[in-house]
Amino acid sequence: MNHSDSHNLGFALLAELYAAYNQLAQGQRWACFAGCSVCCQTGRVLITTLEGRYLAEGLRRAGRDDLLRAAAAVPVEPAARPASSFNALARMCLARQEPPPAAGPEAAPGRCPLLQDDLCPVYDHRPLACRTMVSAEVCAPGGQAVHDQWWITLATAFFQLVEAADPAGLFGPLPAVLAAESGAGWESRLVPCEPLPGLLAPPEHQEGLSRALRPVFARPVRGRPLGLWLDEIRSNRP
């Protein structure tokens, strides 16, 4: 598979994972509404480089290269580098190893550099981190989202799958990923994506997670089930 085919396949897998997550989310009751940007008031959105390329393409299609350049130019402190990716954390937890301490605070002050008039100009291309920022209750300014533990388990599984779809990619803060993808540096603020070691789920959620993901893995991508593509990516990884 050449670089162009690999690039297009990555986008196809990512779009299908986004669609699958959206479909599951639509079956829930959320208090979110257009114009509510409480969850966007953070500089701590973590994405993969595949998501960064997908987001950048959406911005270019929308004619917002200015926002792309502005977001890639946002300074990223060394402490913003994540301690590990989702799959790295899963690998350590499944091996009963102590994960590394967080390199910095869970959330940084500020707001998403792409936000315009409390709306996302590239909503259909937004990363999974943004899609999972949902709440069962309206968030007060500076407040936290409200959702149950099952939804956290499901979202974590999707984070792991999105990472698995980017086998040679990197993971970290949105501005650093966009800067790295544009050739402007900041790779030191990113960590490598890792293959899927297994899904993190507490015992009481494992059966439900298996049922929820079965149709996700069966979703067709280029005439083959999504799960088969992820298995092939994992087996071909160096």
What does this structure look like?
32% of the residues are buried. Strands 1-2-3 form a 3-stranded antiparallel beta sheet. Strands 4-5 form a two-stranded antiparallel sheet. It has helices spanning 3-26, 49-61, 65-72, 86-94, 128-131, 149-164, 174-181, 203-218, 226-236, and strands at 46-48, 170-173, 191-192, 220-221, 224-225. The longest helix has 24 residues, at 3-26. Helix 1 (3-26) packs antiparallel against helix 6 (149-164), helix 2 (49-61) crosses helix 7 (174-181) and helix 3 (65-72) crosses helix 7 (174-181). It has 238 residues and is mainly alpha-helical. The chain has one domain (13-236). The model has no long low-confidence stretch (mean pLDDT 87). The two termini are 15 Å apart.
Largest sheet: 3 strands, antiparallel
Q: Write down the overall geometry.
A: globular
Order of helices and strands: HEHHHHHEHEHEEH
Distance between the termini: 15 Å
Number of domains: 1
Oligomeric status: single chain
Radius of gyration: 17 Å
Number of helices: 9
Mean pLDDT: 87
Strand order of the largest sheet: 1-2-3
Output the structural class. Answer: mainly alpha
Give the DSSP E fraction (strand runs of 2 or more residues). 5-15%
Q: Which stretches are low in confidence, meaning pLDDT under 50 for 5 or more residues running? A: none
Please tally the β strands and state the result.
5
**Percentage of helical residues?**
40-55%
